Amino acid sequence: MFIRSIHLENFRNYGRLDLDVGPSVNIFYGNNAQGKTNLVEGIYVASSITSHRTSKDSDLIKFGENEYKVSLDLSDDDGSNVQMSSCYYTEKSSLSKYSRAGRILIRDNAPVDKVSEYIGVCNIVIFAPEDLNIVKNAPAYRRKFLNTLISKISPSYFNLLSNYSKLLAQKNALLKSIKSSQNMPEMIDQQLDFWDFSLAELSAEIILKRFKFAKLISDTASKHHGSISGGKENLSIEYSTVYGAVGALEAFLNENCKYDEFMHKGLSESDYGRIKGILSDLVLSKLKSVRSYDIDKHISSIGIHRDDIIIKLDGLAMKNFSSQGQQRTAALALKLSELEIIKMFVSSTPILILDDVFSELDKTRRMSLVSAMKNAQIFITCTDRNMIGEEIDVMEGADKAEFYCVDNGKIEKMA
What we know:
Largest sheet: 6 strands, antiparallel
CATH topology of the largest domain: Glutathione S-transferase Yfyf (Class Pi), Chain A, domain 2
Strand content: 15-25%
Number of domains: 2
CATH superfamily of the largest domain: RecF/RecN/SMC, N-terminal domain
CATH class of the largest domain: Mainly Alpha
Number of helices: 12
Oligomer: single chain
């Protein structure tokens, strides 16, 4: 699959943009703050709904406007045409119903009701300076990395996350309404039983997905890291969730000789039901054990919404013990891992975006990145097209590269 044209309306600094692009390498260059990153961000949002730069859709709307729309015209591997469009509007927009913000998703001119039917249609992997956040900043960045990867491969996973978030919000609203765990009405306790049971059921399914993909990331990222670093250091990933859940899952898989089956083929319906029940019971027990604390603090102190993936270098957590150079290498290895894992599960090669990454990497890392880019449509942003000539020369499809100059939200195709 490749993008034929890009359409932006009221997105960042673009009032309106209609741009045809090439099926191979597309290079956008120009001074800083002209709209290069905004363009590729728009491409990513059109395919993935979320931005790699912000969690607030309102940040993406052009100043003075009340909605944005990003659209892609694509050609599928079988030659058929695909159209994707994502529109977000504020409560002030004429599109708004009941004075609420919202989103409209369209695929092939038909509204899409479920996000899971939209995500994964066009897979894009983006490499950007913000990737460093995965390694060095809060767990939320690592959860987003993991959630995004799983959702691209298994869109139904997005529904699990969405349902969990709704249940958690309802439980938290109830917790905030309770003054104290002392003399709490029995009815409130029964309501919390209901929310905790429902959350535990969803948590078990999410833990199973996250555990599997964290293992895949660890294996593939370790390989890429070894290639980049010359094998001098060992990168590993550990999934951290509700206390005891990983141990219970590993014990079940090992005792029943199901580890390989779980990782590669998937468990039988019977085995899946058994381990889901074990994890659900464990999570429910943990939620009940902290109920009084959660009531008094008005929070949900434990749960998969606090999960993390611990990134280690030679056994030490990189968040606390690593240089910026080591963090860049690890971040690159993680993104190369994302690319490889998507290729494992999806027949078509993901579209690639390289947003100002060559200036952040040394030659060894740049060449490691370029060598992984085969048979893909690629979008590159940089300040000077001549600074990345060596990298472009070794890319597949370099002879068909298209160059575009970006200046104050205007894009001109160059020779």
